[in-house]
Amino acid sequence: MNGESLTYLVYWDLPLLHTYLYGTTLRHTRDGVEFTNRMMPSGQIIHSWNSELNYQEVRTQAQLPVLEENKTYHLVPFIDAVPEHTIVLQITFFDRQGQQIGFQVIHRDGNFTYPQGAYRYRLDLVQAGAESFRFHHLEIRTKETEDAKPVFCNRDILSRRICIYLPELSHTRMVRFPDPDSLSFLDNLTLAPTSLVVPPPFFRDDFLKNLPRKGRQWIFVTTGESSLRAAEQLSIRCPGSAILSAENAAALLRQEYQIREPV
Predict the structure, then answer these.
(1) What is the C-alpha to C-alpha distance for residues 166 and 183, in angstroms, rounded to an integer?
(2) Fold identical between 5-141 and 152-254?
(3) Structural domain boundaries of the chain?
(4) What's the CATH fold of domain 5-141?
């Protein structure tokens, strides 16, 4: 858990330049994109994102982050498909001349390595038997993490606190997870996954279920508006918890900020 890590957020934006529309019902909602097409053949590309686009032709910016050669990344989809697991992700890599130099298929979430000599890449959402699905976003992470498994640092066996650092999801399209060493004033610290912040049906509480609870005081540390909204909902599910902004946490915890006892 040492060092800073980044998570790049990939959204399905308008205009629909690279979307399969024949026979498709498509709705952009507050919680993502709802897609229905019961006649679409398996293997068909539903939607594509590109790391490089000609702005003069398509009037839109590049949709994917710049990646480093020979570096391994972790790709995680936030997709609710019917039937389950019927959407596949494919990453195709191209050299400077536009020649394909490799590809990788990811069925759920998984790692991929950006190859030597790659100049750009394309990310495809591929039909694999889905009748419909709801799409919120994709994540390209610089570190592989298991969303359901809390990892702790700054351990203090004498402290009853558990500090849960909530990431801020925004349309800046990048979430920066700090180096835990920079948050040494937060004892028993764990960095929560984005799956704890996104709206239903993508919210997953496995992370919470695996946190110690008995005799503990949970503190949700927020970093902005979306993490604060998530913390307010989480505090309802977690009686006895408290909410602190990252700016206030240092001073308040150093003064042994008192919160109400867990129920």
Answers:
(1) 13
(2) no
(3) 5-141, 152-254
(4) Jelly Rolls (2.60.120)
- The per-residue pLDDT string of the chain (263 residues; one tens digit each, 9 = 90 and over) reads 457 889 999 999 876 778 999 999 999 988 899 999 999 999 999 999 999 865 444 455 678 999 999 999 999 999 999 999 999 999 999 999 999 999 999 998 999 999 999 999 999 999 999 999 999 999 999 987 778 888 888 777 777 889 999 998 877 788 888 887 778 778 888 999 998 998 888 888 889 889 888 888 899 999 888 899 999 999 988 888 999 887 776 666 655 544 434 44
Two tokens at 1?
């858990």
CA distances from 148 to 39, 66, 76, 207, 255 (A): 35, 28, 13, 4, 31
> Are residues 78 and 138 in contact, defined by beta-carbon separation less than 8 angstroms?
yes
Give residue 79's identity as a one-letter amino acid code. I
CB atoms closer than 10 angstroms to residue 135: 23
Instruction: For domain 152-254, give the CATH number.
Output: 3.40.50
Buried b (16+ CB within 10 A) or exposed e, 183-207: beebbbbbbbbbbbbbbeebebeeb
